[in-house]
Amino acid sequence: MAVPEATIWRLRHLIYQAFAGAGHPPDLAQMATTLHLSEDETLEALRTLGDMHSVFLTGDGRGVLMANPFSAVPTPFRVSANGVDYWANCAWDMLGVPAALGGEATIHATYAADDTTTELQVIDGHVEGAPGIVHFQQPFRAWYDDLPHT
User: Fold this and answer.
1) What is the domain-level CATH number for residue 16?
2) Is residue 144 part of a domain?
3) Which of 3, 30, 49, 103 has its CA 20 to 30 A from that of 18?
């Protein structure tokens, strides 16, 4: 059974809309109900989005783990904006969250090297705060080999 392409893109929009509004993705039942799909149709559409690397799925394949720049689980990169706390997947994505939301934000990041924290402000599209260095443990060409790990 092939899910129509329009349905796949509606699901992607729903996922991003939920992340932007509430800081987390909808669960499987919410996705199916909102889009008037069966659970099987929703899972197929979700798997298609996963195969496209449009989202990354939970280990059991029944939920959304990541929809860049958003993470469904806590990470060392928390972004506060519009009264909502968001989790970013990495230092790159912590800058992507305010860009995706289009507004001001406060970023709370933890340095991997020593677990110290820093706070940055995004104001009028500019990052302000203490200077720092972002270290990517893998070259970009290898990120999608296992993006949730990267």
Assistant:
1) 1.10.10.10
2) no
3) 3
Q: What is the pLDDT of residues 41-70, one digit of tens each?
A: 999 999 999 999 999 999 999 999 999 999
Kindly state whether residues 80 and 119 are assigned to the same domain.
yes
Give every CB contact of residue 1 below 8 A, 6+ residues apart in sequence.
40, 41, 44
Residue at a domain's end among 67, 84, 111 = 67
Cβ neighbours of residue 28 under 8 Å, at least 6 residues apart?
A: 39, 42, 43, 46, 62, 63
81, 66, 15: which is closest to 42 by C-alpha? 15
What's the pLDDT tens digit per position in 136-147?
A: 677 768 776 765
